[in-house]
Amino acid sequence: RGVKRGAAWAADGGSRRDRPVRARTSGRSMAKVSYAESGGSDSDAGLKNSQARREPVPALDELDDSLQQPEDEIERVLGHRDPPGASSSSEAGAARWESAEFRVKWRRSSYTHCTWEPLAVLRQLPGSKRVANYCK
User: Fold this and answer.
1) What's residue 115's pLDDT?
2) Residue 102: which of 126, 124, 120 has the closest Cα?
3) Among 14, 35, 41, 88, which one is least packed by beta carbons within 10 Å?
4) How far apart are the C-alpha atoms of 23 and 90, rounded to whole Å?
5) What residue ranges of the chain have pLDDT lower than 50?
6) Positive or negative CA dihedral for 31, 32, 34, 38?
7) In what order do the strands lie in the sheet with 101-106?
């Protein structure tokens, strides 16, 4: 059936129990990370000087307009509905879409924040081309 696992140890005259057990370690070596600032000491004076050199953070109202969130953008049109009281059979073509409301998925928002919006409002927003393609 094969050789027992301990047989190789017994062949040279010793046994596993007679030899000292060495702890297994990884062959990989990890460089130690130093979190101390270079060139400075951990004294209180060194910490105060580094804090004094920091620049103040501007207030939110002073931020550049390009850093602020852009206005709502249409990501996807999920569906449409006719407003209550309007019959879709009486209107034809493009006039039908003027009175319709569209279910819109907004960019940077989840599907739980989808809303029904009229076409007049959606034409003024970025992504209005998606509504036009939906109407085709």
Assistant:
1) 92
2) 120
3) 35
4) 86
5) 7
6) negative
7) 74-81, 101-106, 115-118
Look up residue 93 and give its two tokens.
Answer: 């073509």
**Residue-level pLDDT at 103:** 94
Angstrom distance (rounded) from CA 54 to CA 85: 63
Non-local (6+) Cβ contacts of 104 within 8 A are 74, 75, 76, 77, 78, 114, 115, 116, 117, 122, 131
Two tokens, residue 5? 């696992």
pLDDT value for 31? 75
114-127 confidence digits (pLDDT tens): 999 999 999 999 99
Give how far Cα 46 sits from Cα of 34, 43, 49, 51, 57, Å.
17, 5, 5, 9, 22
